[in-house]
Amino acid sequence: MPPRLPVDSLAFSLHAAAQAIGAVIAGRNLDAALSALQLPPVNRPAVIDLAFNPLRCFGRSDFYLERLMARPLTDAVARGLLLAALQRLENRPQEAHTIVDQAVSAATIMVRGKYRGLVNAVLRNFLRQQAELTEAADADEVARYRHPHWWLDKLRTSFPARWEDIAAAGNQHPPMTLRVNARRATPAEVMDELAQAGIAAHQLGDVAIRLERPVPVERLPGFAAGRVSVQDFGAQQAALLLDARSGMRVLDACAAPGGKAAHLLELADIDLTALDADARRAARIDENLSRLGLAATVKTADCRDLTSWWDGQPFERILADVPCSASGVARRHPDIKWLRRSDDIAGFAAAQAEILDALWRALAPGGTMLYATCSLFPEENAHQVAAFMARHADAQRLPVHGQPEWQLIPDADQDGFFYARLAKR
Predict the structure, then answer these.
(1) Domains of the chain, each with CATH number or no CATH
(2) pTM exceeds 0.85, yes or no
(3) N or C: which terminal CB in the chain sees fewer CB atoms within 10 Å?
């Protein structure tokens, strides 16, 4: 049997991260890959960091690896180990000796130590050639901006003055922002509780509080009691823009994990139906609402199939937070930089159009539907809304902060979101 690595060692975390990265390279979702590892709590944060960072920095460590090896490495887990170690070497040069040593230790328990010598040689060659490799990476577009070529082309076309800032934001650690449950606390109370817990933060808007540094939810005062939830500031705009008022019948059509549904219920006494096509994800809606002391009718259904869930009674407000490329939240889901392809966008756009057309039938005359994505790509956003308007003569746009639609750009305070308000004549 191969030797076991100490659970609290860097080698253990590198090995676990390598398995997660290897799963992504093989086409698996990162969250699912990490869940499958069943990590002990002691090193879960370290493994997440070691897995997320190489994927967040798409293309750069891979650029180095291609130049340090005579031929491509076909073992996805071994490749994942080298990607994690290379990314850490570049960002923590003062720890070079430890990183190489621990990466070699991690390789020792893989495939009977087959890659031990390779890992050692590749990492030491990187350290010897680092200046030249860094210069070459900075001259390569994918390695420099850490996004696929096709993604950068879309950003450059859609945001000619800001595409570099958007790409840079997509490579950063995302902010951790709280939403105060107005039914149980005030922002001032939560700010005071955070200060007492030694957690630095500042308020954004009316009920959002951004932490200076992310912390585990277990450390958040009031989280278990339903006083706060974790939700990006950009995502918090959805419930505000829908403008659901007490007594209204409201639909959240793609609701899991329930953050926006909960926010709607915190703002007004509404009759809310929350749908999701995935039963496991729908269960999370119930869990989140229970923690917050809220209630809704939660159903597992594809919102496009009205006969499977709709009783024929129209809704006065509908939130259509549709499945999309997630290009605006790539820093939270860095595996999509590896997994997405340019031709995937057309598939998302087709499904979004089907959802919009189906939900429009369930909207009451005089009602409002909020179309929302966490995408930056026009095919899913402005072009999608324009095509919908051309198909539906009874639709009219309602302004969003004085604009026909609202595209939020990822920055230090928020992720990237798109919103359009559509009223039924």
Answers:
(1) 10-144 (1.10.940.10), 176-231 (3.30.70.1170), 237-424 (3.40.50.150)
(2) yes
(3) N
